[in-house]
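This follows on from our talk about sequence and fold. Go ahead and set the record down below:
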Amino acid sequence: MRNAIIPRLACITSCRRKALAAIILILLPTLALLLLHAPLSPLLFNLTGEEALIEQVKGVGALLLLKLTRPPVETRPYTPMAHTGLNPYGVNTFLEQEVEEAKVRRSLQMIPDAGFRWIRQEFPWEDIEIHGKGDFEDRRTEPHRSAWEKYDRIVELAEEYGIEILARLDNPPAWSRAAGDAAGTLAPPDDFEDYGDFVHAVVSRYRGRIKYIQIWNEPNIYPEWG
């Protein structure tokens, strides 16, 4: 039975192609004759965008071929759509600038209350690897402390309130450039390996907790790339 069906399908496909070719061969000369009448020329120009007669004929033929051969559009109701179970809305946050934990907590409590489930939180390179490569201690004020401390707190509180973090990693420290901040405080480092090592440090520390990383912010504009 199967062997009988396959040749039949091949015959149907071949017949359709021959019929299509015949239609095109009939229509194209007909269109060429019709185009000799001036009133149709503007119409076909609007249809094809072509000015020359022969190009208008080709354009109409191509449109007919597309119309007759393109597959049908899927219009079944209730067709499943990917990712519709995710809440796509989020807010930008700079919670590392807030020194009081109660205010950080309150901010992260208000975000899901407002219907948001994402934050794009900055993890500034210059605020984490502050004094030199591989140095993650904050000695800018007394007492000295781990530069990770405030970011650990943000991640913990975000988890507590069911918020996903998109971590934005940029803003290099002055030590990463021989010229310091001469080209701007956001200018890229001299050695991109230094930045790669910083990204690795962040990803390793928050593995399984932060799933989404933004590599730099708007590097196509000034001053984000110096």
Observations:
- Helices lie at 2-34, 40-48, 53-69, 101-113, 149-160, 192-205.
- The two ends are 72 Å apart (CA to CA).
- Residues 1-10 have pLDDT under 50 and may be disordered.
